[in-house]
Amino acid sequence: MKYTSSVMNSFAFFLLTIFFTISNAFPLSNSMNKRDVFIPPITYPDNTTVWNSGEVHNVTWDISQAPVNITNKIGRIQLRQDDITFPLVLAYDFDILLGSYNITVPLVISGAYQLVLFGDSGNFSPEFTINGV
Ligand SMILES: *[C@@H]1O[C@H](CO)[C@@H](O)[C@H](O)[C@H]1NC(C)=O
Ligand SMILES: *[C@@H]1O[C@H](CO)[C@@H](O)[C@H](O)[C@H]1NC(C)=O
Ligand SMILES: *[C@@H]1O[C@H](CO)[C@@H](O)[C@H](O)[C@H]1NC(C)=O
Ligand SMILES: *[C@@H]1O[C@H](CO)[C@@H](O)[C@H](O)[C@H]1NC(C)=O
């Protein structure tokens, strides 16, 4: 009996140790008074989107998880293909907390593209289709 309960205690201690190790590795809250990195996921275009060059479309991203203090709230949207982000800027100098922004689809070779939304850091849309030339 005594033996069993001491085994149980060691096991409980072991679990607690794991819990604290994990919670230190992944802190639940960021420290106060610190600016937070915000990388909002792009929700439109998605992987079913087809755009034609010259059209105006409303790029949309999810701002529901935005922290109070954002490191860089100035947004920029660029185009990307095959892991290369082009030095072609589709929109810039807008507030990332808007959650959406109109862009004009550039004239490109038809194919699969992604958008990159920059704020603190780049965030890629899924691949979608642009019909150009
Ligand atoms: C946000 O920044 C302001 C001014 O620096 C500060 O007073 C406030 O406590 C910060 N809030 C959070 C949640 O970090
Ligand atoms: C498109 O995205 C949806 C939702 O994220 C996913 O379920 C689906 O498998 C994706 N389709 C393709 C072709 O990647
Ligand atoms: C954004 O584009 C839509 C058409 O896709 C248009 O109706 C709307 O007026 C545009 N808004 C701005 C602010 O340019
Ligand atoms: C873009 O789409 C969002 C979400 O659907 C909408 O709230 C917003 O008014 C649209 N903006 C423009 C400029 O069309």
UniProtKB/TrEMBL annotation:
It comes from the Eukaryota. Keywords: Signal. Residues 1-25 form the signal peptide. This is Uncharacterized protein.
